[in-house]
Amino acid sequence: MLPYGRQSIADADVEAVTEVLRGEWLTTGPTVGSFEAELARWTGGVPCLTVTSGTAALHVAYVAAGVGPGDEVITSPLTFVATAATAAMRGARVVFADVQPDTGNLDPASVESLAGDGTKAITAVDYAGHPADYDELRVIADRTGALLIGDAAHSIGACYKDRPIGEPADLTTFSFFPTKTVTTAEGGAVAIRDRDRYARAARFRNHGLVRDPAEQRDPDHGGWHQEVHDFGLNYRLPDVLCALGISQLRRLDHFRARRADLVARYNALLGDLPGLTLPARRPYTSPSWHLYPVRIRDGRRREVYDRMRAEGIGVQVNYIPAYWHPVFADLGYRRGICPEAEAYYAEQLSLPLFPDLTDHQQDEVVERLRAILE
């Protein structure tokens, strides 16, 4: 089965991990800081904090933003459920805004109609690796006093109006799952502009521990003493995985360029295919394509999905609208609240896209899709 996404592991990645395995540190050591510094080169210098997954990154971001019971978080339904679930787990009331029908990104007009004094955070999702409209969302966030969060699980290395992703939002989360552009096997990170929020996030990812005697309430016990002032979790990413991440970041330019080439080939090869809508790109963005999301028109998405997979092409659907999941339905969310997102989902299909996909394999994908739709 040709997958829709797959990691690209080179000998240099194996050597980087092996070097750590032969060293003194496996868990939290010097390689963590090195990886975070390398990440900050891709966020315009915004400090980064590594964590154990993209989901953990979202959880940490909401903690750093001060999201708690009764707060309102506006986000997109066209995303993996974790974007909304981690806010709900903080006790927030999640409000789903609709998406733009061409990019699948959060629609600022829909957010504007929903945002108010109770809005604590607006979480945009860079769907498929295409940056959201951050400037328009920033105006809304500033008007309401909300923080702007970017879920950049798909878009590491992308730029919005010549600014690297990680810079336009107050907090930006990344995922390093194997299907993503850069992988640490499992892992994630948060880019955090504000120093106090960064400190809050750093404590939360390490059980809430306070080790600096100057910040402790009862410090006079000895060098072993540590305190917990607020509860936290163990979201530390170990050295061994950060070593893989550093090695992967060294090839991020290559990964992005190859993905862009494949997207351009898809666009050229599929541009005249009836019943198909290709992904859009805003001229002021430089996407970091994680997905190649097409829309299969005329109610044929299920047929195309089944037939492509039967022929060994691992197409995928990204994503079920978050509020369709039973956990949100049980909270009272009903279908129909975001018609554009639901229409997008009804037609969406992700074609294989990853750096090691060959031109020949891509030609096979196109040939089989054409055989179904023509």
UniProtKB/TrEMBL annotation:
Keyword tags: Aminotransferase, Pyridoxal phosphate, Transferase
From which residue to which does any coiled coil extend? Answer: none
Which cofactors go with this protein? pyridoxal 5'-phosphate
Gene Ontology MF: a single term: transaminase activity
Instruction: Report the domain of life of the source organism.
Output: Bacteria
Fetch the InterPro entries from UniProt: DegT/StrS_aminotransferase
Q: Which family does it belong to?
A: Belongs to the DegT/DnrJ/EryC1 family.
Name of the protein this chain belongs to: DegT/DnrJ/EryC1/StrS family aminotransferase
